[in-house]
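Table S5 (text form). Sequence records supplied for joint modeling of the two-component complex.
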Amino acid sequence: MVSCDLELDILVATMAGGDVFIREVVRNVLLTGTCDPGTICYRQDILRDCMNNPDSIQEMYDTASASIEEYLKIVGRYTGQSADAVRINSVKAIELFIEMLATLRGIGKRHGEAFVSEGFRTFFSMLDREFSDEYLLSMREMIEELKLPEGHLIRAVLGKGNQGTGYAIQRSRKPGKQSWISRFISREDPDQYHFTIAERDVAGFRALGELKGESVRDIAALLVRVSDHLVQMCTSLKTELAFYLGCIQLHSHLSHRGTTICFPVPEEPGSRKCSVRGVYDICLALRIDQPIVSNDLFATGKDLTIITGANRGGKTTFLRSIGLAQMMMQAGMFVPAESFHAEVCTGIFTHFRREEDHSMQSGKFDEELRRMSQIVDSLKPDSMVLFNESFAATNEREGSEVSHQIVSALIEKQIRVLFVTHLHEFSRSLYDQSPDNALFLRAERMQDGERTFRIEEGKPLQTSFGPDLYTRIFSETHADTDAG
Amino acid sequence: MMGPGILFAHPDDDIRDDAMLEPACFQDLHLDQIVSALTADYEEYHLNPFFYAPLHRADDVRYRQEVFEDLRDDHLYLIIRTFAKEMQSMRQLLSRAEKNPNTYQNKGWFLEAARIYTEAIQSLADALSKCSLESRGFLAMLTYLNQYSSSEQFISLAEDITRLSNELAGVAYTIHIRGNEVTVCRNVPDEEYYQEVADIFSKFLTGPGTSDKDTIPEQREMSQVEGRILDLVSRLFQNEFSHLDTFQEKHAGFADETICRFDRDIHFYIAYLEFISCLKQKGLPFCTPLVSETSKEICCTEGFDLALANSLLSGNRSVVPNDFFLQQEERILVITGPNQGGKTTFARMYGQLHHLASLGCPVPGRTARLFLPDKLFTHFEQEEDINTFRSKLEDDLERIHTILNQCTPRSIIIINEIFSSTTVQDALFLGHKVLDQVIDQDILCIYVTFLDELTTLPKTVSMVSTVVVDDPDQRTYRIERKPADGLSYAMAIARKNQVTYEKIKERMRS
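The corresponding structure-token record, covering 994 residues in total, follows.
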């Protein structure tokens, strides 16, 4: 709902630039932003590093991507196979990731100096410390041994029904690398027997595979855990880089257009800090090729902001610009504004009027309240709810009463509310109470009916400028008639 | 030797005919659903005939009720379930071993089956002797078990098993596989290196592991390759394997007949108890009914339809329980009231209660005193059979005629919506006729109908399915003992639609 009401997909698509993975990650990060100002600043620092070193970021992302792709090929090929096949594929996968770690470490060695954020400094020094040349070598050696070049040497005992059991793989090479199979299996030993599986005995080879599998079952399980862990590591690296790549992409887009961005200053939730200058709807900016009107919002100390005023006066756009900027801040991104200094919210929710389905007029109000009820289920103190012409699917009096009750309850429950409304009784009654924690804004309209799309402080007016609409439409008709 | 039974007090009564057919009343009463749900997990025991055959002597019923009462002890119940599981594994192993009795693999399974069997017998005898048993069935079984487990034959079997198992468990060997070559030898290395691998990769092993260690079943089939390896192992360890040959010859057919019969029969109880335990957990009551071969003054509180309760188990809908009683000369419950009000369910419950009680089972209800009938007849509405040229009315009459011919004063008859296809006048006339015979023979009967007039005959009790007072569209599913009042329901519907006398006058005022 939030993503749809705020037209988030436009933002996400620009950031992703066609990369499906980046699209998913960016979308996810935006929708699950953090409410910790510290984390936001930490991410902002990393983002600055990324914007300064885009090539290194791309190289790391490509390395991680390629490794995961290769890993999926290996795993896909062996799915549902015996434990011995699992061993073989895990060994391959681990080998792959060891080389990836070596590559990442190389990047850190070459370009690490250019990174100043705490995040990247920690990352590069972790790579250096945890994956020394010596350690990488000993892992590579173990991987070679686990390929079992001398075959499987298995210890067994008789179990129930005389079935062999306790199959346990034994080392078949000394660390010094020469085979020591002969110590156990020698051709001269009278206490031993051989047989050979015929080349075309499919069942025989399968059975042999099972036997080998049982002997390496523990080790295979262990190796799966290792490769799982490695692929997770690799995936989370790829995921984080994907987000920052998306930001880099967006930044280059915006700078081509010459629009302003800034790094916001986040405040603790509940501080009711809100000092915003020149905020604009980033999705609108990305969509249309014209200058966009920006607005200010000084709502420090306010729980409630009521926005009234002319149709098509930029109210919805304003609401979106606030919601999107808030989301971007909480994702750790820069925001579309000249300056943005605001509290973080524990959640951002939207309740926009649904324009569609005119068919079910009777159930519409019910649908609105049901959606409201769902939002209430998820609210926490210091969440933000953006209402856009909500609860108007009934008559003005009932709509106002419902809105009034809902908003009053939310405010008392410490929720921050921005409400665009035409419900005059609702806005008027709130204004008459003139509470300190409420701010009243109005979409500006010049004397001649011209709109500036600027939202300014002002009390709710009786009319919603229906006459404007009437005049415009009817005068156009007149013009047509005259012309004809 | 043939010992006592857990199902029948008198060995002569024993019914174990697998070809036995489902009684005619089963479908109507939904007993077929109950029995198929009951037996679903116990196919190998062929329990159906036990649930098809009601008992006719109160003492036989009591014999089973005692066993059920003993089994209320969770500890005893667990002992029996454990025993049954072991017997099951024994049978599985024996059937494996029989496939080809001359391989060392199958001889191994034969030994394993015998080991499981002896252990099961010993622990059952031990455990039962520590339980405070009350039922005649279990006490007889315990006596038998004690005799059997101390018999010379049994003891020598157990000793042979222990000796041989120890010997074989000591056999260890090494297999080397390279390409398609397999070598088997007596030397065993000690160079396992799991820990070393774990150490090298330790930093990637934090967090919960996704281990697939346990996915390979313990008793998978031995492969041909393992068979060949075993042959070689048997050549490496000739002494141990010759003892196995001797054992199999000596102890063929070791399982005791009485024990095996007990293992099957006890599942009659287990299947039933397992089935009702989920319902009990939902708070539904079950009780041991008092059954009588003579007294027709029956009663039940909080009875319910077991099949319905079971089908509602998955959803969140609850079962509405109902009471009934008959006193002195009362014999017939005539049920009236609105459609979909639970009348048929009530009739089914009545029939289920009596059938289940005559099996010796606990019945769905808080308390129950029930009659032990010689036969249970049902007449439920049937789809018209297009293959016969008889009309539905003819068919109904034909069926009820057959029933009335077969029944005795000790029978129970359940009639649901008979003669609904004909005129009220016909249905009244025929209903009277049928009920007259039932009354004459002093038969217990339940009669579901839409005819209020039938509720006032001698020996009848009127019961009515009720609705919510303020909203006649809502059923309570409660069937109450009160005079039939079809009209008050009709009035409520009229009020709702504003066509009562007052409403029509009011609306027509202006």
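Note: Residues 104-130 of chain B form the longest helix (27 residues).
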